[in-house]
Design brief:
Layout lengths: L3 E3 L33 H5 L1 H23 L6 E5 L15 E6 L2 H14 L4 E5 L12 E7 L8 H11 E11 L6 H17 L7 H5 L4 E6 L7 E7 L3
Length: 236
């Protein structure tokens, strides 16, 4: 699946700068938002998640991180690191900080860090929609299968854009609403159920990235459940 370069779609106001109002997030459906950290099923199935989910995503995560070309000494932020499925893929020559709202998942990630003796990775509890980092602090930001589970994907991407350095790269892998009408219709029917489990299935990546200072490269296919977006922050 080749990458296709795209310009982020402008919002109705025509604004393209990061200072666009957070009211743009109203494009995302606000009713029955996903809050996985409050989902009992989400917490209950953490062991199963850690055992089964890697079978579907490990290879994709490893390859996508390698394609970022993370240089020695780079500072990397992973938003929604969870139990740390992606941690083995990061080069030990970089410094990686992972954040997540789920203390249960972070506990699993910390155990892996201690067991593997990784000195280059640390994790902390934090809200992806309100990052406690300075502007332009990171060379790379990654977010894997997180857009669907945060309360406000737009706010999360605004924060990612804020903490990323100009010229830095953001890597987002997620399920987004299909552009094929019949596929979108089928998946949309599952959305009420998946919201109870803590995630949404009807998010458009154009809405999430609209007005943000990114040059997008999109990698997907009609039959793929996931889309890979590599976003380079523009110099403004």
């Amino acid at each position: 699946m080749p990458f296709v370069a795209k310009e982020p779609r402008q919002g109705r106001s025509g604004r393209t700068r990061l200072e666009v109002s957070r009211s743009a997030s109203s494009r995302q459906q606000k009713t029955s938002v996903a809050n996985p950290e409050r989902s009992r099923l989400y917490s209950t199935f953490i062991p199963a998640y850690d055992a089964v989910w890697p079978l579907f995503v490990r290879r994709r995560l490893r390859r996508s991180i390698q394609e970022l070309g993370i240089c020695p000494g780079s500072l990397v932020l992973e938003v929604g690191i969870g139990t740390g499925l992606s941690m083995p893929a990061y080069p030990q020559s970089a410094q990686v900080i992972g954040i997540d709202l789920s203390s249960e998942m972070l506990c699993q990630a910390k155990q892996k860090i201690r067991r593997e003796g990784w000195q280059h990775i640390s994790v902390q509890e934090m809200n992806a929609e309100s990052l406690k980092f300075a502007d332009q602090a990171f060379d790379f930001v990654t977010a894997f299968h997180v857009v669907s589970v945060v309360s406000d994907p737009r706010s999360m991407m605004l924060e990612i854009a804020r903490v990323l350095k100009p010229g830095g790269k953001a890597l987002v892998i997620n399920h987004f609403r299909s552009e094929i009408p019949w596929v979108a219709k089928v998946v949309d029917r599952a959305d009420p159920l998946t919201r109870h489990l803590g995630w949404r299935t009807n998010i458009n990546h154009e809405d999430v990235f609209a007005d943000l200072p990114f040059e997008l490269r999109v990698k997907s296919s009609p039959l793929s459940l996931f889309t890979i977006l590599q976003a380079t922050k523009k110099y403004i």
